[in-house]
Design a protein that fits this description.
The chain is an alpha/beta fold. It is built from 13 helices and 11 strands.
Length: about 325
Amino acid sequence: MRYVIYGAGGVGGAIGARLFHYGHETVFICRGEHHAILQRQGLTFKTPSETLRLRVRTVGHPAELKFTKNDTVILTMKSHDTEGALRDLIRVGGSDAAIVCAQNGVDNERMAARHFARVYGMVIVLPATYLEPGVVLNHSTPLEGVLDAGRYPTGIDETITQVTKDLTACGFSAKPDASIMRWKYAKLLTNLQNALQAACGLGMQEKTFARAVRDEAVVCLKAAGIEAASQEEFRRRMVAVTIKDIPGHPRTGGSTWQSLMRGLPTTEADYLNGEIVLLGRLYGIPTPYNRVLQHIAGEMARAGKQPGSVTVEDLQRMLVEEQARGK
């Protein structure tokens, strides 16, 4: 089995680094300066206990590869880039590959299943950081992270059993799970706070707004008949992920925070908070807290604002305006 890591930033770089380090045939697909540095000098991969320089084969586009049914493509780009990536794979003959959606959110698998026969969901609990081209950090030790996976929409097969076995042998905890989407919805509930952290900064202590964001989501999932693993289940499964500082690189923020730090013009909030907004509209449930976070994350990215540029008071004012519009 060849592993093609499509979107080799933080999560993709950390997964691909270990697969390559443990002897699996691995290829990165990435772009820009990150691609140039990886081609020129390899990936610098840092953990709390070691620094590795890995000369992983790196290409800038799927057209540079010849795909077969023995390829497993692990998608690790943000959800707003998934559709374009899938189209590129189809154009270059990658339709027979297995597609593993190692991404936040719950819509990537649905996008992939429109085009590919073998689609898998993977829940990601992996505190990776990608802020500097050519350098990926993983702050989890000694376990590298949790990467449970299963067939979409349900089931387990030989492919995903092998994938999870390989990842476990590389230092992750990866279990095959026939009901993987209930875990991905549980992860979605935690990721709804990403935009709040990015907007208000790492030191934000206010809890009321965060609880309201989650409460809206729980009501929406119940109305839609969608099962999510409970908070208690999720905590028990993920407790083995222990975050430690890497010398010279203290752990900072999550994926949305990192997107703003890198000055990207978009974030994944449309597929996190926006997922709850969509369910609210479908089932007639107000979701003003999630709408505010979706809006502010997009506005900050478009304006090039840094994380922490907004206060909780700003969000509260936006919330009042949002609720007034909803009446």
